[in-house]
Amino acid sequence: MPESKTAIVTDSTCDLPEVYVSQYNITVVPTYVVWGDEVMRDRIDIQPVEFYERLASDPVYPSSSCPTPDDFVQTFTRLKSEGAEDILVLTVSGAMSATYDTAIQASSMVDIPVHVVDSRGPTMTLGWQVLAAARALEAGKPVKAVLDRIDQVRKKLVQLVFMDSIEYLYKGGRIGMATNLLSSALKIKPVIQINHETGLVESLLKVRTRTKAVEAFYQEFLKRIGDGPVKRVAVLHGNVSDEAQELIERVKKDLNPTEIISNITGPVLGINTGPRALALCGYSEE
């Protein structure tokens, strides 16, 4: 089968392990971490473990910035020079970031067809759609069929996130002051879900202890994942690899997934979820 002339581009919030990026020749455009006067490229100039360690001790709180139009234009131009005939771009939710709009803007500035897809979510919500696209292209599917496949996967996805504290959502500007004060007073451990229609974060559960919250988060994911024979599950974590490994073992036992992926959540998303967060993201199908 001839090699696909369609290049795949995504942004660094996808949290795909490097082995998949290399295997499928995926181009990752980094988002930026802004820490005081420093501007660093996500997973290039600052790695996740370093980020979480610094987050715990640095009095300055970081922020993030999406790739620029020029970042995308340079990427598209390079891929064309390397033989790409068209480009498929998948980004983090447009409701969470300007990355999607920036990629759309850049697509009008190059003389190669560019198809930009809003994944309607972060981390492996984006990652699973990127992998589905790469695998469809590898199987020789035309771009229209690949876009349909992405849509099919998105509609099946379930993503839940447990956070050790709501403090980081507040610091990252994702919730209002009143919610932060209420949550701090109650000492709750929030569990949120990603709405894959709106691309927005929604509150799901509020539990007072970490142990109970993690258990509730896990059981809720089991209820939602579906009963198709093919199950793909990702376990993400905010620098708590031991707890992530425990989740991996439970997922293997309870779901017997066709594929399981684990990774540490990158700095850009960690700004909002904080250290010791856990996430489960996956889908099932025939």
What does the model show?
With 286 residues, this protein is of the alpha/beta class. It has two domains: 6-31 and 66-154, Rossmann fold; 158-285, Hypothetical Protein Tm841, Chain: A,domain 3 (2-Layer Sandwich). It has eleven helices and 13 strands. It has helices spanning 18-23, 48-55, 69-81, 99-107, 123-138, 143-156, 167-171, 177-186, 210-224, 241-255, 267-273, and strands at residues 6-11, 27-29, 32-35, 38-41, 63-65, 86-91, 114-118, 158-162, 189-195, 200-207, 230-237, 259-264, 278-285. α3 (69-81) crosses α4 (99-107) and α5 (123-138) runs antiparallel to α6. The longest helix has 16 residues, at 123-138. The radius of gyration is 19 Å and the shape is globular.
Based on the model shown, name its key terms.
286 residues; alpha/beta; Rossmann fold; Hypothetical Protein Tm841, Chain: A,domain 3; 6-stranded mixed sheet; 4-stranded parallel sheet; 26% strand; globular
